[in-house]
């Protein structure tokens, strides 16, 4: 058995190739259906949502068939953000929630994310047991009798439920009247609900990337490609721009001048605001090893702490739950506000930023520059499957040399991506030239080593 089926954010890969095939989706659903059967004499249920990828139809149908064959009823909600699936799983008292999405990846990819009945992503142990059931199908219980096959139906008001849920996170007594907001929905899961929430709270909305066609999700739009949003925010004279990714669990902000505000600045803003209001729990926030040292210094100056984890919002959330924090996230824009959601929610995070904007009366460019970031450079290099660049001696020697160069004035993070065959090389420090030289030198060593491997 191998745990490699599940990465840091569920199962992910190119659609119609292992592991993202209809056959594998059927197996995952049958294994998950067996895992989540409580043995109680009642009907069991699952919630299935998806983003707007063409392959979502195929994966959704296979998952549905697998769950029905286990005697589970299935509620189909169509395109909705990942956090909406987590919320609906709890709200509908379902045994499991499933989101079909590859998040910020191109449309050719797809993925499967599983949520337990509490709305949280599954633990490593739960994913390992589901993987075991897939690897050892002889240990699965038999399929249910034909009289007990589950039923599937559409939850017609699922979008409206999530809209009300998101609006309830916005402080009562505040409205968005007078604000012009550009929002880029990445032609993804939030293309309907996100603009609706902003309009119903009183904003003038400039919707961008809200015409999905099955193949244009994340294509030159969304949280990983904000150039168009930046241009349109300035061109329309918007007060602020908001960018979500394909499944809307990520947020990047654009100020009124077109400048990008990343997840670190957003976390700093929310944490500072909540601490001032007595709402921040845990004495600080949780972020990953990728977050800027400037964020850490800012929090220290406020008497707040920063707990760092491995990259991946699942690890951030684990630390938050274990230590009682209610704010955490990643520089990339995965922001978890535990008072409202059990997973990253780009729209709810955006509403907290907008609340700060309304309350302060400041421009977004003033409000969102909470701290001065240290010079930081991140570059990626792709590698072939079957090769482990971080186990090769020349790369290990180069990493040790780079760490020595930055010692005392900066730091280095080099790691594999949890979702793609990429090595990510990040360095930061007080000397921008040294940081740039360090990253370029490491990338060159990795590239030349891979050629020889």
Q: Give me the side-by-side strand order of the main sheet.
A: 1-5-4-2-3-6
- Cα-based radius of gyration, to the nearest Å: 22 Å
Helical amount: 25-40%
Q: Please give the count of helices.
A: 14
Beta content comes to 15-25%
Number of strands: 18
- The low-confidence runs, each spanning 5 or more residues with pLDDT under 50, are none
Distance between the termini: 28 Å
Counting helices, strands and paired strands, the structural category is alpha/beta
Shape: globular
- Average residue-wise pLDDT: 94
The major sheet is characterized as: 6 strands, mixed
How would you describe the overall organization of this protein?
This protein is α/β, with parallel strands linked by helices and 453 residues long. The chain has helices at residues 22-35, 56-69, 82-91, 124-135, 158-167, 193-200, 227-235, 263-276, 293-301, 313-323, 346-360, 364-367, 393-406, 432-452; strands at 11-14, 44-50, 72-79, 96-100, 109-115, 152-154, 180-184, 204-208, 240-244, 251-254, 260-261, 284-288, 305-309, 327-329, 335-337, 376-382, 410-416, 422-429. The strands form five sheets. The chain has a six-stranded mixed β-sheet with strand order 1-5-4-2-3-6, with helices on both faces. The protein has a five-stranded mixed β-sheet with strand order 8-7-9-10-11, with helices on both faces. The longest helix is centred in the last third of the chain and has 21 residues, at 432-452. The radius of gyration is 22 Å and the shape is globular.
